[in-house]
Amino acid sequence: MGWSIIRVWTVAVYLFMFLPVAVVVLLSFNDNQFGSFPITGFSFRWFIELWQNDAILRAFKTSIVLGALTALISTILGVLASLALVRYKIPGRNLISTLLIAPILVPEVVLAVALLLFLNFLSFHKSFLLLLLGHVIFTLPFVVLVVQARLVSIRRDYEEAAMSLGANPVQAFFQITLPLLAPAVFAGMLFAFTISFDDITGTLFWKPGGIETVPTQIFSMLRNSISPEINALGSIMIILTVGLPLIGVGIARRIAMKQH
Amino acid sequence: MARETREARQPWLLLAPALTTIFFLLVVPVLFVVVYSFWLRTANGSDQPGFYMTNWAEVVTDPFYRDILFNTLKIAAVTTFLCALLGYPTAYFIARSRGNKAMLLMLLMLPFWISYIIRTMSWINILGVSGALNSLLLSLGVIETPLQLLYNEATVVLGLVHFLLPFMVLNIYVSVEGIDETLEDAACSLGSTRWQSFLEVTLPLSLPGLAAGGLLCFVLAAGTYITPLVLGGPTDAMFANLVFEAIITQLDWPLGSALSLVLVAVLGALVFIYNRFFGMAQLMKGLS
User: Fold this and answer.
1) Which of A104, A105, A234, B232 could disulfide-link to A24, CB 3.0 to 4.6 Å?
2) Could you tell me the CATH number of the domain that includes residue B103?
3) Which of B12, B30, B122 sits opposite A106 (nearest CB)?
4) CATH class of A54-259
5) Interface pTM (ipTM) of the complex?
6) Cβ–Cβ under 8 Å, residues A139 and A74
């Protein structure tokens, strides 16, 4: 008896989580001229209008470039730091770990204010670069957590075997450790990209006037009124952000399978 | 000897880029905010360095800030409570289900990948004047004119619960998953009812996960300013909105600094208390 109540409860919670999102996708294909209820027919008109909206296309480009650069930089920083933490005995390990995940512990608003004020003090004003530095800072902990978790499970013996056969540590890293670590590096990169692509809290503080990312563009469109184009944009983002990780998992699995 | 010193230097070379970045882009800036909060904003728009108590006096004495702080904490507390209420049975179900556990877990991860701003604004489609609920009620003839359901404190809480629920479920799940199922059976065989064995065995053992989820929900809810801007009315500002207003709209950076430090102090105290009781490791378990 109790179990069936819990089951119904769970179904209700999942509906609560996904129904509003499903309605976004549903409305984005609605033919109704206001893009709201009632549903009058199936149409791609909002996607066509979206395609013709220069502001949104520019925002998309900005977000993708920003996300890609963020992912690249924080993955490099994160992988190097994780190697040090997992592969070496270093004094003050706990303090260093805490420092590396500190950007998650500080409220993002405060992080945003701090970075803005400090870099402005160094006459470094709101710019794309500030946006990039900010995104690197708050995606770094996630890369470190993902890569570290995987690195712990890769046995050190493999590297030592390679080195005893004459490889130097750099060769051992690139030919042994990195291929084994590839799925985690890839996952960390994807994670960083998605977090950057989705961020609005910090971005609104750091972005210079005239530059919009997809979330800030949606936000400013919401302030006028909810237009059906937002639903179309939302649909594309849902398909993109849900599809990308699924593809990522697939690729990671294939890489992992090749190794065995 | 030379080789050994090189060995000892290696980890620091690997750590240097990340630690330098964090030090100069997080540690120093946060300390700089402390300094900045004692500066003074002058009429011509430039900020006067010095040691003025003006901002702190304003933040501490003005009842406006105090009221919004308390209201923010209240909203965060209600949000956390609702997440726990909705999330616990769900997490329990996932942890104890046999067949479709993998699918339920994958579905649970999906919201993390769906844009926060899209999930927040999706409620406008549901509760707006021409949204799903009003259309349904109108077509059923229950109401004659659309109801104004949006833009109040309740919809802010709704948006926050919707955003934070996956964090809560995931943390509780990790905890319940680690509890040996036979413990409950053992309690039952010793004469307790299912409900008793849950209350006295499973619930206490899953407390670390519940607390980790609760901390995450509370801190993230109390630090948000986007949800009140999208789903709240003009009087539903939360504390982070004050920071945003001061920094971006009024350009009063010294005041904004003081306000952000209040937020750090309040939420930091909470993290500190949590750390005393459960330790940070539990929090990391749910994050990765």
Assistant:
1) A234
2) 1.10.3720.10
3) B30
4) mainly alpha
5) 0.89
6) yes
